[in-house]
TrEMBL record:
InterPro entries for the chain: Alkaline_phosphatase_core_sf (IPR017850), Sulfatase (IPR050738), Sulfatase_CS (IPR024607), Sulfatase_N (IPR000917)
Gene name of the encoded protein: LOC113406330
Listed SUPFAM superfamilies: Alkaline phosphatase-like (SSF53649)
GO molecular function terms attached to this record: arylsulfatase activity; metal ion binding
PROSITE patterns noted in UniProt: SULFATASE_1, SULFATASE_2
Gene3D superfamilies: 3.30.1120.10, Alkaline Phosphatase, subunit A, Helix hairpin bin
Protein name: Arylsulfatase H-like
Transmembrane segments: 197-214, 226-248
Keywords, in A-Z order: Calcium, Hydrolase, Membrane, Metal-binding, Signal, Transmembrane, Transmembrane helix
UniProt cross-references to PANTHER family, sorted A to Z: ARYLSULFATASE D, ARYLSULFATASE FAMILY MEMBER
CC cofactor: Ca(2+)
Similarity section: Belongs to the sulfatase family.
Top-level taxon of origin: Eukaryota
A GO CC term assigned to this protein in UniProt: intracellular organelle lumen
């Protein structure tokens, strides 16, 4: 804006000149605001289905705040997660890179981090968008779920911790919500493995009991040494797995403030209010900006912790209640932005880490999300229902309002987008798979920069999307698809989550090919007989796969069997009384706080209430009384 002409301002009515001066100052402030670094607010739901949100077609769940966000900004209809499970998807979101590049993909059935006390996690040499913004003078915070690991070699090295990845402040769960956080019923963490271990323990216990009775009655000629040795081996086996799986609530369901444990186990009934208070408090403390606030909701992951205010209020049971409570939280956070006068200078984003969990059920009650018209869900690397998620952006005065974009985009695009907004420099020594979305969001370009998108299930490439440049054509080839259980059910209800490999999948040669522009629900694949371009499309996609694989380099596998087992020496523990400390400025040198008086009584009480009866009954085959 050119400076005003002094001779013109000096002439005429003084009152008019005053008003012109006020108008000029207002314009200069608006211009300065629009060109300065914006605050950045990122909100991510956990396991939210695309079809659960009103602005994406759901007319039975109430999500007025998310819907209003879309009305005031830009809605993406083809926003794709880089993985169908939380740990790898969030790693890709934070780094702008496919999980396979950082070692956050898995070749086993354990595709997420299973323990706070494990050694796997987001490698320290990965550069997150939080680190880039921190270097540009932003105050950065993560409130809510992390699930990217904690420690590498000791309980206090914090190599995977958020504060080691560019966040100045962290309050939330280092792990994720699981059913064990609430009760021992309907176990969720590696449930099939736990069932096997229980069975083996029962067999060993019954064998020892049989040998003991046989020895005492003279039926068996067996030495006492053999019985004692067998019993000792069985006891060691039981301790080896029960010491981890038997105390999931204490090991994984904890809250941290920076490096210090705030609650162990966490008080679920207070989690919603605590996270909301922390988010609002951060906005109030940093209203002079610039800041990056990543609110990673615990909603809407099972066990669907919902406050009394929302229980029974939706038309879709507990899951619907939880969705509507999360929408209310979104509204309160946006209200805090408005209250501080930050709306016009805040780049706001809402999404989910992947699709809804179709197999999450209890008896006949659905506890997982709905993915609209799209096939599949959480855990399925190729089908749209597992990876197509909400994508909503708002920045008044910079992004158009009430706009819909149907181009392919990725959660990985947030990385280069916010780096661009902060005038940051992305790493030049590695491949960044995300693309800056600002030209597309502002309408300066009509097509996405993504030509090919690769859909992994663990380390296995299941599908590839091809968006032909300057064309509306959108193809998707499936090389591998999961086998639904039961057949035709649309999900893997028997196992609880679909597998990526082995006898639980079907390999397709030639690949299944869908034209997503006319068949987004992936109902009817095309064939050489029905599509003249079939061979050309498959050939081009296969060439793209080869080119993509040439960019991959070997890296340590963070989700390997060794990294993904519980290690007592890595487990964060709280000693002494639990206290709700006040939010303090981060101290990166602070280790976990220890004091005297470890709560052995709590753990003993936990065994009595949750495990003694089931273990005793399984061994003696009669109902036991809690000691």
């Amino acid at each position: 804006i050119p400076p005003p002409n002094p001779s013109v301002v000096a002439q005429g009515n003084p009152t008019r000149n005053i008003w012109l001066a006020i108008l000029l100052v207002s314009c200069l402030r608006t211009y300065a605001s629009s060109t300065s670094k914006p605050n950045i607010l990122l909100m991510m739901a956990d396991d939210l289905g695309l079809g659960d949100v009103g602005c994406y077609g759901n007319d039975t769940l109430r999500t007025p705040n998310i819907d209003q966000l879309a009305k005031e900004g830009v809605k993406l209809t083809q926003h794709i997660a880089a993985a169908p499970l939380c740990t790898p998807s969030r790693a890709a979101f934070l780094t702008g890179r496919y999980p396979i590049r950082s070692g956050m993909g898995s070749s086993t059935k354990q595709r997420i981090l299973y323990w706070t006390g494990g050694s796997g996690g987001l490698p320290p040499n990965e550069t997150t968008f939080a680190r880039i913004l921190q270097q540009q003078g932003y105050t950065t915070a993560l409130i809510g779920k992390w699930h990217q690991g904690m420690n590498c070699e000791s309980h206090s090295d914090h190599c995977h911790h958020p504060l080691n990845h560019g966040f100045d402040y962290f309050y939330g769960m280092p792990f994720t919500l699981v059913n064990e956080c609430q009760s021992t019923e309907n176990r969720q963490l590696n449930a099939l493995v736990q069932a096997k271990y229980w069975l083996y323990s029962q067999i060993i216990a019954l064998t020892v009991l049989t040998l003991l009775i046989g020895k005492l009655t003279g039926l068996f000629l067996v030495k006492w040494k053999a019985i004692i040795c067998f019993a000792l081996c069985g006891f060691l086996f039981f301790i080896s797995w029960f010491s981890s799986y038997g105390f999931v609530k204490y090991w994984n369901c904890i809250l941290l403030r920076n490096h210090d444990i705030s609650e162990q186990p966490m008080k679920l009934e207070k989690a919603t209010s605590n996270i909301l208070k922390e988010a609002v408090s951060f906005i109030e403390r940093n209203k002079h900006g610039p800041f990056l606030l990543f609110v990673s909701f615990l909603h809407v992951h099972t066990p669907l912790i919902t406050t009394e205010k929302f229980l029974g209020k939706s038309r879709h049971g507990l899951y619907g209640d939880n969705v509507e409570e999360m929408d209310w939280m979104v509204g309160r956070i946006l209200d805090a932005i408005d209250k501080e006068g930050l709306k016009n200078n805040t780049f706001t984003y809402f999404t989910s880490d992947h699709g809804g969990h179709l197999e999450a059920q209890k008896q006949n009650t659905q506890l997982g999300g709905w993915n609209g018209i799209y096939k599949g869900g959480k855990g399925m690397g190729g089908w749209e229902g597992g990876i197509r998620v909400p994508g909503i952006f708002r920045w008044p005065g910079v992004l158009p309002a009430d706009t819909v974009i149907n181009e392919p985009t990725s959660l990985m695009d947030i990385y280069p987008t916010v780096a661009h907004l902060a005038a940051g420099i992305m790493p030049q020594d590695r491949v960044i798979d995300g693309r800056n979305l600002m030209p597309l969001l502002q309408g300066k370009v009509q097509h996405s920069e993504h030509e090919f998108m690769f859909h992994y299930c663990g380390l296995y490439l299941h599908a590839v999307r091809w968006h032909q440049k300057d064309s509306a054509a959108l193809w998707k080839a499936h090389y591998t698809t999961p086998i639904f259980q039961p057949e035709g059910a649309g999900a893997c209800y028997r196992s609880g989550l679909c597998s990526c490999f082995g006898e639980d999948v079907t390999h397709h040669d030639p690949p299944l090919l869908f034209d997503l522009s006319s068949d987004p629900a992936e109902i009817k694949p095309v064939s050489p007989a029905t599509e003249p371009l079939f061979d050309i499309v498959i050939s081009r996609i296969e060439r793209a796969v080869q080119e993509h694989r040439q960019t991959l380099t070997p890296v340590p596998q963070q989700l390997s069997g060794y990294n993904n087992v519980w290690k007592p020496w890595l487990q964060p523990l709280q000693f002494g009384p639990q206290q709700q400390t006040q939010a303090l400025a981060p101290n990166k040198s602070t280790g976990i706080s220890f004091s005297t008086g470890f709560k052995f009584k709590q753990i003993i009480d936990y065994i009595k209430l949750n495990h003694w009866g089931s273990f005793c009954s399984s061994v003696t085959q009669v109902k036991c009384h809690t000691p």
